[in-house]
Amino acid sequence: MISIIIPTYNERDNLEELVSRIDRALAGLDYEIVIVDDNSPDGTADLARELSSKYPIKVKVRPGKMGLSSAVVEGLELAEGDVVAVMDADLQHPPELLPELYRKVMEGCDIAIASRYVKGGSVAGWGIVRRVISKGSILLAWILLPKVRGIRDPSSGYFMFRRSVVEGVVGELDPRGFKILLEVLVKGKYSRVCEVPYTFGLRRRGTSKLGGGVILSYLLHVLELSPPFVRFAIVGAVGTVVNLAVLWMLRYGFSVMHEIASAVAIEVSLLSNFLLNDVWTFRRRRRSGFIQSVLRYHAANLAGILTQYGTSVSLHRFLGVESLMSQFVGILIGFLVNYALSKSMVWW
Ligand code: GDD
Ligand code: MN
Asked: How many A from CA of 267 to the centre of ligand 2?
């Protein structure tokens, strides 16, 4: 059976057409529709219940607007099909594509994505700004999330997958996560992802619910999903700025000699890196207590620290390279040895 999960918020005007088009598209196949409504003021849930006498519909009503992803996660808990689809209620996702997505899954795709960005796909009525933001957000996902690289439309809201993809990880899917497909792609178990082109149509009735703050929530979501190596690199970049800022201040603000300024700058950035990696990169999964972990972090980084300090001081003292530049080159060379050692000595 196919379960089609549809989150709704004020979609009363779209529901009847949506359901009848799904029914027509899936004629002859066993399916159920799982509507997760957030107590829409326009009475979407009442209409959904009414329609459930004519169509195979389950309705889950939640007390208030709790967000698109969390609605999908709740829908997953109710869905009984061994194949699951997620789509919007506003007909921007054409139900006529469902058989094609299903065919792909039957052919062996674990996840079949309705894609705006493969050949033949498109978006209707978007200006240049929205297009750039959409593409830029996908590029960001490719940079920060190795698992989604190569997938043209990882932020699609329309996709179908084998239930086994999320078996055992439904509890791990972040209901605050902004894009539920990213959650599935990063946390799910699958080997083949396919994309089917479609045109993301214009919303004909009602209004979009995804408004302000969208870009920031997306950024936070992608950072949250990024693997430790990526987060470690981001912390390293922040540490570089801290390191150079401290060095600059000591050298040019307080005229401290390079040998001392360099050492202090290194230590300050080391401590700030430790804290960031602890709370964020490795989520406090320490092998030992706090103080001991700080010491272990120094030990793990020792080779890097000494390389960095040695490079910085030699460049400045023996080759006359400017302070900040010497320090920066030292940082780059020292960084190379850090990741592997830190991870194996301090965190799980
Ligand atoms: N239950 C519930 N709770 N449903 C919600 C909520 C909520 O808080 N917010 C939105 N929805 C429902 C809407 O009723 C609609 O069915 C669907 O989620 C998508 O909301 P839209 O407001 O139409 O989003 P959009 O068109 O801007 O963006 C959609 O399409 C993009 C491209 O595929 C979303 O699916 C995006 O995630 C997607 O990237
Ligand atoms: Mn929409």
From this structure: 50
- Contact at 8 Å (CB) between 194 and 104? yes
Longest dimension (CA), the chain: 85
Task: Reduce the secondary structure of 110-145 to three states and give it as a string.
Answer: CEEEEECCCCCCEECCCCHHHHHHHHHHHHHHHHHC
Sheet holding 193-197, edge to edge: 57-61, 31-37, 2-8, 83-86, 159-162, 111-115, 193-197
**pTM attached to this predicted model:** 0.86
Helix (H) or strand (E) holding 211: none
In DSSP terms, 168 is beta-bridged to none
Is ligand 1 within 6 A of the CB of residue 89?
yes
| Ligand with smallest separation from the Cα of 207 | 1
Burial class (CB in 10 A: 0-12, 13-18, 19+), 304: buried
Domain ranges of the chain: 2-225, 228-345
Pick the CATH number of 2-225 from 3.40.50.300, 3.90.1200.10, 3.90.650.10, 3.90.550.10: 3.90.550.10
Q: Measured from the CB, is residue 37 less than 6 Å from ligand 1?
A: yes
At 85, give phi and psi (nearest 5°): -120, 150
Q: Which is it for strands 199-200 and 159-162: parallel, antiparallel or unpaired?
A: unpaired
Q: What does the pLDDT look like over 179-229, one tens digit per residue?
A: 999 999 999 999 999 999 999 998 878 777 666 678 888 999 999 999 999
